[in-house]
Amino acid sequence: MTDISVYAQLRREILSCALAPGSKVFEQELAERFGVSKSPVREALLRLQEQNLVDVQPRSGYRVRPISLTEAGEMYEMRYLYERACVMRAITHASDAALASLHDHLLTKARVPIPEWIEANRQFHSSLARVCGNQRLADAATKLNDQFDRFTFVSVTRLDQPPDFTRFNNDHLALVQAMQRRDKRRAAAIVKNHIDASRERTFQALASPAIVP
Asked: Where do the coiled-coil regions begin and end (predicted)?
């Protein structure tokens, strides 16, 4: 297994909660499981630490970062601020062609495997950031989006009722159409309602003691 494969596999396991929030992980155990030396495992864990997915535990290895309601609230607040700023700036500055390109990232299928939908959802929100025309803002928003996969996974797999992908897909389409009309008021409302719905679903899922240590 390559260094990139070790990182990718660990990231998948953390984002899918296969490695449970709060669980401890050790370089030697992971190296044996993946059949590699400790060096690529250490490098992978350091990358995951930079993404706030693992914490270093002095003299006792690493811990998968717990998911808390407080952190979720802060993350959703940041997401709203970044995404609204990206959308408003894109409406003002992006070309018609750039806005039209957002259609390439829309998912129209209502029933898809959860990992596929999560990936498509992340790609769409990252594409919103890329068309805003401010590289620093886009980089910050994209980095935040990369950390959201775990919240998204929890929100769509930990409730009794399955998620309505059709609604989320329709929100994305409506947002792109509002942006193409240069309708800032409508676009801002869609961003707020979309993120509010996602936050509510995540909070309901996080209320489970099995998720919040």
From this structure: none
Structural tokens at position 105: 């990232």
Rounded distance between C-alpha atoms, residue 60 and residue 58, angstroms = 5
Whole-number Cα distances in Å, 173 to 89, 103, 124, 141, 176: 18, 8, 10, 20, 5
Q: Can you give the pLDDT at residue 211?
A: 54
d(CA 30, CA 35): 8
Predicted pLDDT at 108: 80
Residues 85-106 have pLDDT tens digits of: 999 999 999 999 999 999 999 9
Phi and psi dihedrals of 60, rounded to 5? Answer: -145, 25
Looking at residue 106, its pLDDT comes to: 92
Q: How far is CA 101 from CA 31, 143, 179, 180, 206, in A?
A: 42, 21, 12, 10, 35
Q: Is the pLDDT of residue 160 over 60?
A: no
β-bridge mates for residue 56, sequence order: 62
Ordered by where they begin, the domains of the chain are 3-64 (1.10.10.10), 69-206 (1.20.120.530)
